[in-house]
Amino acid sequence: MKGRMALTAELVARCERNEPDPGPVAGHREFGDEDYAAAADRLLAIAPPGPTWIFAYGSLIWKPAVHTTDHRRATAHGWHRAFCLRLRRYRGSPQQPGLMMGLKRGGTCVGMIHRLADAERRQSLIQLLEREVGNDAHVTGVRWINVRTDSGLVRALAFWAEPQGLPEWVDVPLDEVARILARACGHVGSGAAYLYHTVARLDELGIRDRNLWRLQHLVAHEIKRLHLPDPADDHSVESATAPSSLPESLPDEVILDR
Questions:
Q1: How many domains does the chain contain in total?
Q2: Range of the domain at 148
């Protein structure tokens, strides 16, 4: 792809800090092993025949976290990426909430689909649910959607696709998203790191999401404004650093209060 990322590993490193895990919010019933198994069984019961595909548009692109046997570029029409999930844990804190990506209605989202190993699909789906969701309300955003590939139309499972009744599901202008991601950090890492890994991997795959590309410029500018009062001190924009230079903390696109 043409053009280098403005958001670099050096800039992201300025956002990282040690944060304690605040733990789940009191009063919320969280899933146990039986709940995850039951949720996986419900989703598989309505799965299309044939292979089980997972639609990846954020961290699942660069770290699927389960055994997969095939990968294809895919386009979800009628959905778009957005930083719309408010986090007070993982990549945010109660004092400095963060944002993670979900799928919102409208537009187009180009990502990847990963095929779960046939013999392991139930266990792999349980693992993905354990990573991505924490309760019944979260599962309302796990749904089968149509995606277009070079081989035709495929039904794939998407996470965080318009969950129902979550106060943490928000609409935030892009400039405000940048301000939040440049500041938010939780016990697994910063929001800036999540954005960096996602945009860098999309770029490697030849996928340029216009909003994410603009966002990484905005976040880079905000980090420099916060940490580099003298712009002459910053040389990181001149050297685009490979995504592997940062730790790939998990979980990522997830979780509100697990």
A1: 1
A2: 9-17+31-234
